[in-house]
# Entry
Amino acid sequence: MWFKILIAVSFLMVICFIYIQLASIPVDSIEKASKGQSFTDKDRFLNLDGTPFNETHDLTVGLPRVYMYFDPSCSACVSMVKMILKNYIEFEMIDFVLVSESSMEELIIFSNSHSLGDYTNIIVVQDSMRKFANQFGLIETPSFVIYDSSMVLVKILDQYVTFSIVVRYVREAVNSSCQTSL
# Structure
């Protein structure tokens, strides 16, 4: 009897430990991002050619921006990328940065298999320092961090959502950008 109670208590302690670890993800970076401050540092991401990602050089300044945290082996991520490409006309004035912790080889294969190099506003980068997900509290893939054109945080979608929900917040970012420019 005592053995069963000991196992149950041990199990509850493990669950509590996991919950505390997840709850302790820092949110100060999210607060900084929401105030329009850039969250990237120059050595955080690598382009597929191995050069450091530079958001002012590699992206169009003044466009809404969507960061998609993904894994090339994730079927939901692949589906989401296919939906973005299928609806490309609607998204051609939005920069997409696909961020992954996967190996450079996996990312190159993923990019080539979806012809992502053909799109000037879709960039695949490697999170070489593995900080992006932690900074925004992202656990699942795909997850999204959406900014308007002024780099004001619109929404963090930190769990799997349907494509229509992503579109809703991307449109909100575009509308916010339009109102800001008026």
Remarks:
- The chain has eight helices and six strands.
- The mean pLDDT is 80.
- The first strand starts at residue 45 and ends at 47.
